Amino acid sequence: MMLLPLANLTLWTTPIWLISVGVTLGAAVLAILWGLLWLVARKRAEEVIALVSEGILMPITYLFGALIAICLLAAPQMPVRLTLESLRRLTSVGERSHSVEVPARSDDFSVPVAFSADELTHYDVVSDQDVRLAAEKGVGFTAPVAVVRGSEKFTWTPKSKLPRGFQGNVNEVFITNVGDAPAKVTFTYGSDVRMPQAHHIPVVTLFTVGLFVVYLGIAWLAPGISNIALATAKEAIGQPLFLIFIVLGSVAFVVFIYVPYNTFGEDVKMLKDSGLSTILVLSIVFGLWTASTSVADEIEGKTALTVLSKPISRRQFILGKYLGILWPILLMTVILGAVLLTAISYKMVYDSRETSNPTPEWQQCYAEVAQTSPGLLLGFFEAAVMTAISVAISTRLPMLPNLIICGAIYVIGHLTPLIVQSSVGKNEFVQFFGKLLAVISPMLDNLNIQAAIAGGKTVPWDYIGLAGLYSAICIAIALLVALILFEDRDLA
């Protein structure tokens, strides 16, 4: 099977390059922070190097290093100047509104604004009197940008047939009131950078910085929990199952590119849905397996008793075990997520070649990548919830019952909303039982939006925030139950 010609290389690698720009900026911020720490507290700075080299941050650092190399090596073929200009202008664009009262029979009433004509996405003018809007003084009657009738709204968008009327950087607009009464005018405009994809670069930067800061913060604020988490994470990553899942998922994503789905041009949607589901299943299975082997087996094998004989409380033991399982799941999500996003970008160009359709622009490839990214985060939330439940069950039961119970909770968490909302749910008993299950079990279906993401729907940030808050509450409840069950567990 022939691969794509190198002429199309920049099309599907540009989205990956933009992600690498965010990672590179995050690495630069981390380097500056470490340098400041080294100047202030050199011993702490050395501890940072030790913590990074021992835990999951080391393989993540290797991955980020590869992305930094992509950022630097591919820069000559990428829109570097446009990217930097868009990043610089991020704080200067957005939605703005100016309401003024223009005196009767006044010419060229100045309204201060600040936008670039090339960045305009729309502008609206509303007035209760007849007015004329101009971009320069003295042209309100000869060359107005807009002629607004009283109580009528004037709207310009790039899709409209009207001329834009503005050029270059605009610092003020001029309103001419032709009526005998003062005019209340509202001028609203929206602008965006020339490369809208630059909005996501600071998000990637914050994720890069936040990942290291959270990990190191836990290590410094809760050393007992962090030590147990570090040992558990090392053990989990050292399991053959971890490497098998990484290789299996990566190979599957490559195979998904070339598998004909026969979906009449919607193979990318199938790839996104299949890829997100694969990462979710592998993460949950690994979390359940590791919770059983790390918690239940240590309790049964009396290893936990040895650990607790040291100045380690049972609370620290449970929280450390949970974090130690969660870190490898995060590492798995980051690695497989990077492979999946690359496969999706490549798939866009590959499909156009296979179906003889017009070759997509890199912006279209990036749109598919950006729409898929929230699904990785929500999948991690769901895996984190199931892992917390598994840790709670592992304090009392061995692996097989743990897997069965967690499997039942997973099915119930996804099917309960469908049962309640279906025609079967109209039965009073079924409706009551469905609502009862919805109360006592996590609503995992709220975290499963693969179908919407595969369909090209944009996931709003407020939904991600609420989903994260709901997941945090479920995790807190599950860990509280785990602490209660483990508190009086006889370990001798």
Q: What is the end-to-end distance?
A: 61 Å
- What's the overall geometry? elongated
Q: How many alpha or pi helices?
A: 15
Low-confidence stretches: none
Average of per-residue pLDDT values: 87
Q: How many domains is the backbone divided into?
A: 2
Rg calculated over all Cα atoms: 28 Å
- Main β sheet profile: 4 strands, antiparallel
Strand content: 5-15%
Placed side by side, the strands forming the largest sheet appear as 1-8-3-6
Helix residue percentage: 55-70%
Class based on secondary structure composition and strand pairing: alpha+beta
Kindly state the number of beta strands.
Answer: 8
Element order, helices and strands?
HHHHEEEEEEEEHHHHHHHHHHH
How would you describe the overall organization of this protein?
The chain is α+β, with helices and mostly antiparallel strands and 492 residues long. The chain has two domains: 94-191, Jelly Rolls (Sandwich); 222-487, no CATH class. It is 63% helix and 12% strand. The protein contains 15 helices and eight strands. The protein has helices spanning 9-40, 42-54, 57-73, 80-88, 200-221, 223-238, 240-258, 267-300, 303-308, 314-354, 362-394, 399-421, 428-440, 450-454, 461-487, and strands spanning 94-102, 106-116, 120-127, 131-134, 146-148, 153-156, 169-177, 183-191. It has a four-stranded antiparallel β-sheet, with no helix packed on it. A four-stranded antiparallel β-sheet has the order 2-7-4-5, with no helix packed on it. Helix 1 (9-40) runs antiparallel to helix 2 (42-54) and helix 1 packs parallel to helix 5.
